[in-house]
Amino acid sequence: PMKGAHLGLPGRVHWAGVRDEGWQLLMATDLYVQPSRSEGVPLAVLEAMALGLPVVASGVGGIREAVVDDETGLLVEPDSPDKLAEAITALLAQPSRLREMGQAGQIRYQKMFRGESSVERLAEKYFGLEGA
Fold first, then answer.
1. Torsion of CA 93, 96, 100, 105, to 10 degrees
2. String of b and e for 13-23 (b: at least 16 CB within 10 Å)?
3. Is 76 exposed, middle or buried (0-12, 13-18, 19+ CB in 10 A)?
4. CB 83 within 8 A of CB 96
5. How far apart are CA 47 and CA 54, in angstroms?
6. Considering 27, 57, 81, 111, which has the largest number of Cβ atoms within 10 A of its Cβ?
7. φ/ψ (deg, to 5) at 73
């Protein structure tokens, strides 16, 4: 039987397997979803933001630093599949909001997490060095 058939997933969910260049798949999506119970710095979330995708994720760990709830995406409680589904459905029903959140996330990524600016913020935060 097909994977996820008992959940009604065939035709709705595509099992892509392990990919080296996941960004190519992300470019074909409307939003990025990361349901986690715990998380460090979520590189996949940052990659999605860099590509201009809004993020629906559990509000845990480093995800809370990356995603601004109701601005660059939506944060839900971990282990809350109903709230996760509601957030996804709500965003998909509002294409203009998807675009706005995706753009806001891309700007946040560029300002906060991209290369040199990320190193400058780290130096300021931990070493008190301005313009490092």
1. 40
2. eeeeeeeeeee
3. buried
4. no
5. 11
6. 57
7. 170, -165
Helix (H, G, I), strand (E, B) or coil at 116: helix
* pLDDT per residue as tens digits for the range 43-97: 889 999 999 999 999 999 999 999 999 999 999 999 999 999 999 999 999 999 9
In the block, which residue shows the tokens 């074909």? Answer: 28
52 neighbors 106 (Cβ within 8 angstroms): yes
Alpha-carbon Rg for the chain, nearest whole angstrom, is 16
Residue 62: closest CA among 128, 99, 112: 112
**Integer Cα distance of 132 and 130 in angstroms:** 6
Q: Please state whether the predicted TM-score (pTM) of the whole model is above 0.70.
A: yes
